[in-house]
């Protein structure tokens, strides 16, 4: 553990969140309800991209986890206080009247980061950190895109009982493409596979993300999508590495 490196990484991560989260909250408080969805989903993209900072700058998985838990713990405390005083940047960004919506979403993110980093960095080794990253990135880009496209141009509902009745074909398709694109870019910079393997793994991640997201309800996709994508991508990655080694 390199304390100096981790303190710099923590400062960078806090600066990243503050630089983007505060303007998003202020913008959301100024917009009418009908136009707030993009700012809500901007938080998802913001949170998902933070995983790149986390795995790139911290010296160990546990220092990364401790830092992110500290940051998110402070965030929950601040949100709780702001909710009590009905601060517009918090009250107006919520979709539901339930006071626990934002803290529960932050809690899901904390659980996801802890589990993925512990598994793919702590247990498997730092060379597999990218598998944690692609799950979070797929969730951030896939969920945001599917929601925005589905609500703006979605016409055909996914009628199968396994899916949330509010999801549309257009939104789910767009979410799959966005998740796959985000994962491909992540793999391009972080992953050890050649480009054909990156494309295959990105497609698998995009499809997995869209199916799980469309099946999840009441914001639980924050938990289910990253975990599902990373876990399903793992055997696919090892299979691609095996095939690569045969030639």
Describe the model:
The protein is built from 9 helices and no strands. The model has no long low-confidence stretch (mean pLDDT 85). It has 247 residues and is an all-alpha fold. The protein has one domain. Helix 6 packs antiparallel against helix 7 (169-190). The protein has helices at 3-30, 37-57, 61-84, 88-91, 101-123, 129-153, 169-190, 195-215, 221-245.
Q: How big is the Rg?
A: 18 Å
Number of strands: 0
**Residue-averaged pLDDT, rounded?**
85
Oligomer: single chain
Instruction: Give the N-to-C terminal Cα separation.
Output: 38 Å
- Structural class designation: mainly alpha
Which sequence of SSEs, written as H and E, runs from N to C?
HHHHHHHHH
Shape call: globular
Stretches with pLDDT under 50, minimum 5 residues:
none
Largest sheet: none
Tally of domains: 1
Number of helices: 9
Strand content: under 5%
Helix percent band: over 70%
Please outline the helices and strands.
Elements: H1 3-30, H2 37-57, H3 61-84, H4 88-91, H5 101-123, H6 129-153, H7 169-190, H8 195-215, H9 221-245
Helix pairs in contact: 1-2, 2-6, 3-5, 5-6, 5-9, 6-7, 6-8, 6-9, 7-8, 8-9
In brief:
The chain is an all-alpha fold. It has helices at residues 3-30, 37-57, 61-84, 88-91, 101-123, 129-153, 169-190, 195-215, 221-245.
């Amino acid at each position: 553990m390199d304390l100096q490196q981790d303190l710099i990484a923590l400062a960078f991560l806090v600066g990243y969140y503050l630089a983007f989260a505060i303007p998003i909250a202020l913008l959301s408080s100024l917009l009418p309800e009908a136009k707030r969805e993009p700012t809500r989903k901007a938080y998802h993209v913001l949170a998902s991209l933070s995983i790149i900072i986390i795995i790139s700058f911290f010296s160990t998985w546990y220092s990364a986890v401790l830092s992110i838990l500290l940051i998110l713990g402070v965030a929950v405390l601040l949100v709780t206080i702001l909710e009590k005083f009905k601060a517009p940047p918090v009250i107006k960004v919520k979709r539901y009247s339930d006071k626990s919506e934002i803290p529960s979403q932050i809690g899901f993110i904390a659980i996801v980061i802890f589990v993925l980093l512990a598994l793919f960095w702590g247990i498997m080794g730092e060379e597999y950190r990218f598998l944690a990253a692609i799950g979070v990135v797929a969730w951030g880009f896939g969920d945001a895109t599917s929601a925005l496209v589905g609500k703006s141009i979605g016409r055909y509902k996914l009628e199968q009982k396994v899916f949330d009745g509010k999801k549309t074909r257009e939104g789910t398709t767009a979410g799959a493409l966005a998740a796959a694109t985000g994962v491909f870019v992540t793999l391009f910079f972080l992953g050890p596979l050649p480009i054909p393997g990156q494309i295959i793994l990105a497609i698998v991640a995009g499809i997995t993300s869209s199916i799980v997201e469309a099946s999840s309800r009441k914001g639980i996709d924050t938990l289910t999508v990253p975990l599902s994508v990373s876990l399903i991508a793992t055997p696919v990655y090892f299979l691609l590495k095996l095939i690569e080694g045969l030639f």
